[in-house]
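Sample intake sheet
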Amino acid sequence: MNQAEYARMFQVEDSHWWYVGLHELILSHVAREAARLKRPLRILDAGCGTGRLCQLLAPYGEVEGVDASREAIRFCRRRGVAAEIGDLNALELEPERYDLITSIDVLYHQGVRDDVEVLKSFLAALRPGGMLILNLVALEWLRSSHDVAVHTRERYDERTLRDRLAAAGFRVALLSFRVSLLFPLVAGYRLLRGRLRSARAAKAGASDVVLPSPLVNRVLLCAMRMENSLLRRLRLPIGSSLFAVARKG
């Protein structure tokens, strides 16, 4: 990821509709898991970025964060999150240490050499019945300058993600698109922006991480909360992200 992206994330993660909606969805699954186990969870956020999700997960147990970027770790420390530097391609995780692993918008990065091997390492680090939560970019035709900025290797489709989770040994509990209600707006914006940008600007890789006006942000967050409610009952057929919950065994 371009280093400037971490500063942008740090500035907007607490309030931007996309991050808030995603974090609320993740926490709804974590809360149910904590209630099911009836004890504090041991959690790893693999690719923790600037540490906002680690902060939000802290009430549910003991949280560890790891990221390959020293810039990300610097922002984690500004949040008071004790994350560690680590490369997911070579990370040695203690077997059956965690109840829950989150890896949010990480596996699609160019720096991940083999996503199935990384998933296998997550599987080994989970306790029997443990939970993995993923969010990934979806649909290759939505590729834009944002993907340049965050060093996207590939954008996933449902079948690819399901097959790779299965190849790693996971049982898929939930796999659905996200950002579905807003998909026409998001897709139209991405495609139009891609056509209007110059080749030089696209190469520079400016991302889409910009906080909209307070009113627009509230409206978009309401749409994401409606979508989160729908995801409790059904699978959404299209969107700009894929969200997965998978279990060991």
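Comment: The first strand starts at residue 41 and ends at 46. The two ends are 33 Å apart (CA to CA).
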